[in-house]
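Thread: sanity check for a docking pose with zinc ion

Original post by kr_44:
Hi all, I'm comparing my docking run against an independent structure prediction. Below are the sequence and the ligand SMILES. Could someone generate the full complex and paste the structure tokens? I mainly care about where the ligand ends up relative to the chain.
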Amino acid sequence: MSAVKPGTLALALGCILSAPVAAWGPVTHQVFACRALDAYDSSCFAAASARSFVLGSSAPDAFKLYLEGGRELHRFDYAAFQLRYAQGNPGTTTENFDAVGYSRAFGTHLAEDAVGHHPDGYLPGGVGATKDHLHEAALDTNQARTFPGLYESQRFAHFGDSVIVFSTAAIRAYGKEKGNALFAKVTREAVAKAMHRFDRLETWEQIASAINIPYRREMVALDPYGPADFNQARANFERASKCSLAAAARWQASMSDLTTSASDARKAVEENVAIMFGQGECQPTSHP
Ligand SMILES: [Zn+2]
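Reply from moderator J.T.:
Ran it for you. Here is the predicted complex with zinc ion included:
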């Protein structure tokens, strides 16, 4: 890998994102969600159900980064619980917010992270937090700029109280089931605050993205597979994207059987990811 000298603005962005490593950035997760819905254009944001799905695809990082103990919610176990909770409590869905779609996408996020963070994956981690974040930011910039049509970042604030009420209830129910007092007593204010802080992070990222001129160079320099140029970097990203989408679809398919347990759905994804990497589908065939 050649040495990268990130621009000052990009470095600032890296600092904004200097919380624990989040694998794919929020824009990349949300664009994956549109592709999963077969709506890779502005139609992705037309209906409340699709918008809720898109929001859910980036949501796990809000809790991981900003809710006390929230790393435990950035897990397949909670994602499966939340989906069953939404399905069992149809009253949590409102005109503006589809709790089931949101919860489906919440799990797809974790499947996508499993691909990104695979030891042979596109975002192996451990490269150094600042570089990891710069890479995520460069990809987010690329994804927002190349989105066919207008990309509309989905924020918690757009969904009013519904998403706060639902998330608080689901986390409390999960806490009760697992004997986790922190979650069982989580307050609506703490949940709302985590969402607000994540929304604000996305706003900063959007501002930094708008002026992130060297993102193409960064995508080449920070790519773990050492591409020769931007086209190769794009191809590497696209390969990782396809695997992420396949893993995401695997989780959804697995959970569509109502008798599937959280751990079985997780194992199905892990097996699927291992097979795809084993067959060389997610990474370039020959490392330079
Ligand atoms: Zn994540």
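The two ends are 10 Å apart (CA to CA). Hope that helps with the comparison, let us know if your pose agrees.
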